[in-house]
Amino acid sequence: MTPLAIILVEADPSVREAFQAFAQALGFVLTVFETVDAAIAGARPLGTDILIADLSADADIRRLLAWSGALGTRPATILLTHQSPAMLERRLAEARDIKVLRKPVAAAEILDALKAVTDTRGRA
User: Is beta strand 99-102 parallel, antiparallel or unpaired with respect to 50-54?
Assistant: First the structure.
């Protein structure tokens, strides 16, 4: 079975490092970007299954969702944010088809979100 490929957008070096260890332990292939601009400018690895981004600004969220939506097949998206998921969905129509986790986020919540998005992909 091919491991799932994840793009992570995370500005905090300690969080990036922790997530890299987490992803490696779970057998995921991980590509990391520090900013939305870097993710958009970087070449999307073929076969990306999941996009995980730690963003708070509506403008950054909109840009990332527009970029990922323009890809041939949008990867399943998990957004980590300080914003309320309900408020985010009211302000951003694009946020309705992504999994939103409000920070602080526990490892178990990330695992549940990964399972939810991969289960959805498996049924598609």
Answer: unpaired
Which region, left, alpha or beta, applies to residue 34 given φ > 0 means left and ψ of -120 to 50 means alpha? alpha
For the sheet with 76-81, list strands across it: 29-33, 5-9, 50-54, 76-81, 99-102
Angle at 27 between CA 3 and CA 70, to 5 degrees: 50
Res. 32: pLDDT tops 90: yes
- Across 3-19, average pLDDT: 91
Residues 6+ apart with CB under 8 A from 92: 58, 61, 62, 65
Q: Could you tell me which residues are beta bridge partners of residue 53?
A: 9, 79
**Whole-number Å distance between alpha carbons of 60 and 65:** 9
The tokens of 67 are what?
């970029």
pLDDT at 46: 66
**Model's pTM, two decimal places?**
0.86
CA distance 7 to 82: 20
